[in-house]
Specification:
- The N terminus is likely disordered.
- Strands 1-2-3-4-5 form a 5-stranded mixed sheet, sandwiched between helices. Strands 6-7 form a two-stranded antiparallel sheet.
- It is of the alpha/beta class.
Amino acid sequence: MGRGRKSFFNDLAVLPWPVGLGVGALGYLAIAHGVPLWFARQGGALAQAFANGANPFRLVAWLFFALCAIAAAASFLSARRKRRLLDTRTGLDSIAALGWRDFERLVGAAFRRRGYAVEETGLGGADGGIDLILRKSGKRTLVQCKQWRREKVPVNVVREMYGLLAHHGADEVRIAALGGFTPDAARFADGKAIQLIDGETLLAMIRHVQSAQRAADAPPLSMSAHRTEPVFDSAAANTAMSAPDCPRCGATMVQRTNRSTASTFWGCPTFPACRGTR
């Protein structure tokens, strides 16, 4: 569902928290110093009042800064909560225990950890619609989240999202459904710009970004503890840099070899949980 009309400070609260503090500081300077300077140049009684040291706009400036600081604090706490929400999922049961709001936040946090810019457009109702908009590499992807535990997503839901793809001029549609999809829904999505993410695939993506985050947070090894110089494998580095994302779960793919034909292809590292290939 779409969001209702929000205020400037509500919009500021969804941006990274340093943005809120920066806007507050700039707003304070503009109101406390820029506005009085403008009035002083106009002449008249107000100019005389400002020349005598009176500044009625200073209180307004502090109020604006305080509201921006509150929005920044809300953004910081929200980001920390989403990170904890993502990092504490251990299996399908822990995902199923979430409410529909937190399920949307979890999916958004997983894609955000994968390097996507995520706009949360849902969080206003449990009946579907466009819940998230992903942006990466110039492409825009519409996401619907279905936290149905015991019910599979039918084909009509997939058709509706496919219609929204053309209506909004997006590049791709993804539907994350904990309970999976009916065979008719899977057949309809086959060959189209639609990715169906069932519970197992979502869990595989979450585990992948969790392990990547743990590796990023791990302290670097001390080079003094090793007597040999590290060997740089340029071929492996080039392969890692060019590895595409899995079309199903978004994990960074690995190169595999077909045993029958000896040909190489890209496969999902979470196989058999996810069978995405390129």
